[in-house]
Amino acid sequence: MTGNREEFTVTPWEVRGEVNYERLVVEFGLTPLNKDLYERLTRLAGDTHKLLRRGVFFAHRDLDWLLDKYERGEMFYLYTGRGPSGHTHLGHMVPWFLTKWLQDRFGAKLYFQMTDDEKFLFKPELTLEKTRKYALDNALDVIALGFDPDKTKIFLDTDYIGFLYKIALQFAKKITFSTVRATFGLTESSNIGQIFFTSIQAAPAFIESIITGKNVPCLIPLAVDQDPHFRLARDVAPKLGFYKPAILHSKFLPSLSGGGKMSSSEAMSAIFTTDSPEEVRKKIWNAFTGGRPTIAEQREKGGNPDICPVFHYYAFIFEEDDRALGERRKRCLSGDLLCGECKEDLIKRVTNFLKEHQRKRERARDIVDKFLLRGEQTF
Ligand code: TRP
To answer: Is 187 exposed, middle or buried (0-12, 13-18, 19+ CB in 10 A)?
Structure first.
């Protein structure tokens, strides 16, 4: 018995167990994304996005403040990133989809950070050569989503450190070891690069202010596990005369093998952008579902879409149409829709998406240089 408090862990380096997002809102001190704010964002954007509509982005910090600024003519920029520890999977792309939509709707610039340094420091088995290779590979996935080449810059920390270092130092000087240890669960035996790292992830939230010499609002769409970095950055920002970055938090695309977020290390739990149609078929076919042990039982009692990763794949990515999603949910609950049919349909959609994505990914190789920042370059 675990009692009524199910155990789960969410830190930037570990997500374990069945995440209770309502509890996370309280524990992290987030603000739920309520209807009023959602409607305001929809009105300013001109339309809505399914990840917002369906509550995949469920919380924020200071989004209302950012929109106040925007309405008074102060343009914001976007910042997000990726820790390149392997190939990109569909879960990684969830915040990127919304970032792309925000860029399109608001015409915002985007800085995209590849933390090759972070993954080197935190993954014992990874070398700097490997994290660089993954960073450049993952950059193709970012570009393939169609970010505006004139408004988007991607950088590897180890290439862009010349510029980032001066910002990172200002933060590092104001953050103590005991704060970092408490926030991230580091210990006396953590390597010293890990202790410093959060100041590198903070830095891009202030790039535009540094470049332009005046405060520029920054919006960071992210998966909620990354929030602790920006909690610290937001504490320090006013002490350095910067605006606090605003944040939009997403849930995790569930693991295909059931429970928790998808993991890059567990190949069967996630679909990678580089997977072949055969791999997609095998992974979805083997996925955990909200179905019953037998067909007869499922016909009688219905399935449970709320705990089903296959259903979540539709809700997060593969079903645009709300009515069709609602219909699928109803048919599942009533026992009319069996898991086999639902999986087959998803296999088709994922395969089509990846075919197109892989083509764009190859084309991205020709233009990746236009996106990359090095040394002390800016836009
Ligand atoms: N640390 C993140 C990861 O491991 C990558 C990252 C860097 C990031 N900067 C970010 C993610 C800003 C979201 C927002 O994936």
So the answer is: exposed
